[in-house]
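Entry
Fold in token form

___
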Amino acid sequence: MTQSCRAARAFSALVMVSVIAGCAGNPPDNSWGGNARWPTGEHLGAALKSAALDPVSWGPLAGAALLSAGDLDDDITEWAMDETPLFGGDALGRSDDLRDLLGAGYVITALLAPSDSFEDKARGLGVGLLSFALEGVVSEGLKDVTGRERPNGSNDRSFPSGHATNSAARAHLIRRNLAAIEMPGWARTGLNATAYTMAASGSFARVEGGKHHMSDVLAGFALGNFIARFVSEAFLPEESGVLLRATPLSGGAAMSITLPLP
């Protein structure tokens, strides 16, 4: 069994154990994916503001700007390429593995999140796919526009890091999925930390492998988080307030109302 397969099974097992391990956390009240919507202009504006104010969006972007203002970007990039402190000579392979594991983590948590119907589950997965598609299009478009040469000189598609963009988007969507799954708070916190650690280390591996400057990775990470949060909050908001749901029945429908408790 390869290292990546072992890690995938370990991550999957950790999710399953966390779901089974008691009811110490707050149980989800609603069907995952059931509140998917076509956003209005107001929804889009609110989601845009929320995504922009997220520290995981503006923090790495500010870091990239600071590095680009001097020689520090080149210094850190050259140091990472020479020393390869995290992954040694197989940094690019490990980066691919970690990105794929985050993809598996998203699928697992999306499937485990409680949904009332197949339609609700499909809607939730559709929003996730929309996030991935949009971050891929934006990342590739920025590469075309900027034309920044990679540190290893292989081509001019260094900015931003697509791996970092994709990994950050997956980590954010995993966090949202975990929020809908009943589990102890400590388990949810640990899984969130695991997902973001995987995303950050896999992104840094691209610097070690000579594919990106450090600022490329920071900008890509910010971009991925921004797009994932924007799309999620615009199309699939986390539940709050009053929820009114209609369930079709033979000869009629059943109405249910969910009220938040203080």
